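We now fix the convention by which a protein and its fold are recorded. Think of the row as the fold of the chain written in a discrete alphabet. Here is one such record, which you should read through line by line.
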Amino acid sequence: MAYSIASKDNKIFVHLNGEIDLERSPEARKVLLECLENTQHLVVDLAEVDYIDSSGVASLVEALQTSRKKNIEFALTNLSDPAMKVLKLARLDKVFKII
């Protein structure tokens, strides 16, 4: 998994790339939680995610829960087909704000 971070209009954008699986999800979790320390708006771009498993989804859910506790706006954007399929299968497409 690779990632990039950008900032614009008081928002942080995290672009995740590649596979987010058991091996790589700890890094995704760390990046997302660190970004939540520095913003009131976090947008996670999943356009280039080729594969995501339950551990990757758990990292997203933990970031969402943390954002809610801290009253931070959290959204997913540009979901790749594999990412959207997994979120729909888990019925999390209704839980996350998707823009």
User: Anything to note?
Assistant: The chain has one domain: 2-94. The beta strands are 2-8, 11-20, 41-52, 73-77. The chain is about 35% helix and 35% strand.
